[in-house]
Structures are given as C-alpha cells and as structure tokens.
Amino acid sequence: MSEHETRPPSLLSLPSYLAGHVARIGHRELDGALAERGLRLPHFAVLTALSDFGPLTQHVLADRLRFNRSHLVGYLDKLEQRELVRRERDPEDRRRHRVTLTTAGAELAGEMTAVARSAQRELLSPLTDEERDTLVELLGRVLATDDSGRNSAADRAAD
C-alpha cells in the first residue's frame, strides 16, 4: 500500500462501506441547499413523498419513509410552521390526520428536487449514462428486497 492510500483496502471491498460514503458525498450539496432554507434531509423527504404520492395520513407517510412516527411529528411541526404542509382530519377516519402540501411546499419540493438531481449528476459524473442506469437499477433492487422483507415481517407480526 502506498503512503497516498488513505482508506483501508479491506473497507473498500465492502459494498456497504462504499455505498455509505458515496451517499454522504451525494448529500453534501443537497444538505447545503436545504440548510440555506432552514431545512434538513428528512424535511425534503416528507415534501418529496407528498409531492409524489399526494396527501397521506401521518402513519402511512411515516411507514413509506421508514421514519419513526414520533420523529415524523417533529418534522411536520417544522414544515407546518413554515406553511409548507397542512395537517387536517382525514375525511375517511376522523381519528387520523392527513398531511398535504401547500402551494409553497409544492414549489419548494420541485426546487429541491432539481437541486438533488443536479447533485446526483455531479456525483455520478465519472460514470457513463449506462453505468449510472445500472447502478440505480442495482441499488433499487437491493432496496426493494429490503422493503419486501420488512413488509413480510410486518405482515407476519400482524397475524
């Protein structure tokens, strides 16, 4: 090993180590842009989920984002204070709250999604388009397998 190698080769052979560090690199620009707006990555996740799925009940939103439900309440409090989301009684079940994006929230979600896409293009610039597509497909497959396993475990626990 040369003196210029800073990372242990044993760690560099672990996909989870690589993925974790690459994720941190990818978050840097987005984290900075969010911080300029007084937000963090979980706030962006909430705005994005609501933008993608439309209004959701709080428990469904927490489950889809894999957030602890009590943590979600704190994120929603901040977003609601900023008038980016609105919580209202679910018309189908008055015991639940449904979360919706406000116009300002939808605009910010779109703006931050564009920032995120730009950061991802920069992050993956060493790769060809085909390599990027393959990487996204492979990572998506690993994530889908984990999601499937979690859903199966939750179904078994409910029985």
From TrEMBL:
SMART domains: HTH_MARR. The keyword DNA-binding applies. One of its GO terms (molecular function) is DNA binding. One of its GO terms (biological process) is response to stress. Keywords: DNA-binding. The keyword DNA-binding applies. Residues 1-144 form the HTH marR-type domain. InterPro entries: HTH_MarR-typ (IPR000835), MarR/SlyA-like (IPR039422), WH-like_DNA-bd_sf (IPR036388), WH_DNA-bd_sf (IPR036390). This is DNA-binding transcriptional regulator, MarR family. It comes from Actinopolyspora alba.
